[in-house]
Amino acid sequence: MNTNLSNYNRNLKLKTSIENRTIYSADYAELNVFETRQVAESVNLQFSFPIIASMLTGKKIMHLEGMKSFDFFPGESVVLPSDKKMVIDFPLANSKNPTRCLALGIDPDKIKETVEIFNKNTRIDFENDQHSFDASAVHLANNQQVQFVLDRIFSTFLEDGKAKDALLDLMVKELIIRLLQTKAKVMLLDNETLFDNNRMAFIVKYMREHLTENIQVDKLADKACMSTSNFYRSFKNTLGESPIDYLNGERIKFAKKLIQRTNDKFADIAYKSGFNNTSYFNRQFKRFEKITPNQYRKLVNDNIS
Q1: 66-103 b/e with 16+ CB inside 10 Å = b?
Q2: Mean residue pLDDT across the chain
Q3: Minimal CA–CA distance to 86: which of 67, 108, 104?
Q4: H or E segment at 287?
Q5: CA separation for the pair 172, 221 (Å, rounded)
Q6: Which of 277, 273, 276, 296 is nearest to 286 (CA)?
Q7: How far apart are CA 140 and CA 159, in angstroms?
Q8: CA distance linking residue 155 with residue 169, whole number of Å
Q9: In what side-by-side order are the strands of the sheet with 138-141?
C-alpha cells in the first residue's frame, strides 16, 4: 500500500459501505475520497463544481452522458464539468479489497485565472470556455503528468503545516495547466479547421503524416517559420510534451497497430514505425505502454484466442 493510502486509512471513519466519503478542504480546492466495500450497481453521484476524478484502487464501470460506458482503473482520470451526473457500478468491491477513488473539486475562479495564464504562453486560445474544461466528460487513460500531480495533491492534503494551502495552490494551477495541455492536444488533433491557420496544428498534422521519416526538430521549426528554441518552447507549452516525445508516442501507437495486425518481427515493426534502433524502440514502447512489445503481443494473442 502506498504512503498516501496509509495516511488516509489512519483517518478513515467508515459510515457506509457504498461510496463512504471523506472530505479535505483548502482555499481553492476540495478533495473527496470515496470508498466502497461491497458490490453495487447504478450508484448516482454529482457535483456542483468541476472535478477531476482519479482511481486509487479497484475498478469502477462509469456511465456518463454522451460517452460509451468504460472501465475505470487506477492510474486513470476523468474530468467532469459542473453538474455532470455519473452512474457507477462497482463489480469487484469488498471489505478486504475496497474500491477507492478521489474527486478533486476546483474553484471556477481559479480555473479562469489559470486559463488566462495558459493562453498568454501558448498559441491556443480557449476564448469563452474558461469556466470549465469541456462541455462533456473526458477520460484520461495513463496520463502520467496528470496522475503525478494528483498524487502530490492527495499527499499534501493529508499533511499538516503552515505552507499547506500555498503548496496546494501551486499544485492546483499545475494540474489545470496539465489538463489544458491535454485539451489543447485534442483540439490540435481533432479540429481540422485549425490546420489552415495555426502553426502548431500544421506541424502536428505534418508529423502524423510523416511518422516513418527522419524528422528533426530544426526541420519542424523551419516549417513553422520559427527559431528552433522558440518552436520547441511553444510546442511543449501547448501540448505538454516535447516534439520528440509526441512523435515517439505517435510512432508507438502505429507500432501497436502493426503488432495487432501482423506477425512481423519486432525489428521490422520498429523500422516500419520510424525507429532505426530496435533497443530504442523497446525502451520507448515500455515507457509509453508500461509493458514490452513482446508482452503486448501476448496480450493481443490471448484476447484473440
Answers
A1: eeeeeebeeebbbbbbeebebbbbbeebeeeebbbbbb
A2: 84
A3: 67
A4: helix 278-289
A5: 32
A6: 296
A7: 27
A8: 14
A9: 20-25, 29-36, 99-106, 51-57, 76-80, 138-141
State how far the Cα of 189 lies from the Cα of 294, in Å rounded to an integer.
29
What residue type is assigned to position 5 of the chain?
A: L
Grid coordinates given for 12: 478513515
Q: What is the pLDDT of residues 140-150, one digit of tens each?
A: 876 778 888 89
pLDDT in tens, 253-302: 899 999 989 999 999 999 999 999 999 999 999 888 878 999 889 877 86
**Cβ contacts of 30 within 8 Å, gap of 6 or more:** 23, 24, 49, 104, 105
- C-alpha–C-alpha distance, residues 57 and 225, integer Å: 47
Question: Which grid coordinates are listed for 78?
Answer: 476523468
Length of the chain: 305
Residue type, 250: E
